[in-house]
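Table S2 (text version). Query chain:
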Amino acid sequence: MKVVIGLNTAWNLVNFRAGLIRALVANGYEVVTVAPSDDYASRLTELGCRFVALPMDNKGTHPGRDLLLFFRFLKLLRNERPDVFLGYTIKPNIFGSLAAHMLGIPVINNIAGLGAVFMRDNWLTRLVRRLYKLALSRSCHVFFQNNEDLQMFVEQGLVTVNKVSRLPGSGIDLVKFPYTPMQSSKNQTFCFLLVARLLWDKGVGEYVEAARILRSTYPDIKFQLLGFLDVKNPSAVSSEQMADWVKEGVVEYLGVSDDVKHYMVAADCVVLPSYREGVPRSLLEAAAIGRPIVTTDVTGCRDAVDDGLNGMLCKVRDPLDLAEKMLEMIQKTPLERYSMGAAGRLKMESEFDERFVIDKYLQVIQEIR
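Corresponding structure-token output:
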């Protein structure tokens, strides 16, 4: 049985879907991964799958380019003739699914997060809703990563309730991210860390402003950022802006790394003041290794945190409230932060183990057969 997995970047496939790809291959499936080529594409063959490069204007809204993407998917799927198409991210979910439906190929979608377009109410949002409704109407199953997105799609008639279910985000590999308790000492400088694609919608501006507020009282505290700059996204933070912040001395930019765990282990608290998420992978990774979290009380982010138990929730777009919650984290004793980290690990084991996600996919694919 052949499975085609469509996504918007090879980086995303390697970092978020490797466990599923390995499991499908181990269960005898032929797996073909499809995405625009990038520096991570060569790593996909190590997972036992085949990679097919498919150009994609991920953030553009030009109808001609989107129509071309549809025909590219149509040609690829006609050539591959898979038994099932797994769609992730907005354009593969829409245009890949429409192409698969036209060819009579069963489709399983994953709505990992609605992105910036659903934070607004304009012509683009309305168009995307219509396209989602058209694309999902004939899908066999649609996974969501949080209940709020699921309920919104059902209530707005974008998908029928009998074909949806919720997954615990993309899941977390608890072996790859082992519990690593904090090693606190009196001479250690407290360190906050934000890990994300560096977009304004991720709350990067609020994080920087909160750092300015706290530095007036705690000048030695570290405020670190790790992630891609200058991504193709209208909400992207520029390298020039980051250079200004670093020159000001308010934050430390760590660049990009494939070993996120190394930086999380060195941090005392992981922060993500995002405006909206599916379920953010960085928070699952932080909780798995035993780090307390400060994040916003919004869709997706709140799923990873039991407020006051393994982290704290703050108001969205509010650097003052974010700074207040970060200050509370600083003022907690090492034992209190250790307890928060331990609670986070237990939450990941009971709710977000990647095996839950893999088992559900295998079950739904088996039902299609």
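Notes on Table S2: The chain is about 40% helix and 15% strand. Residues 191-351 form a domain with the Rossmann fold fold (CATH 3.40.50.2000).
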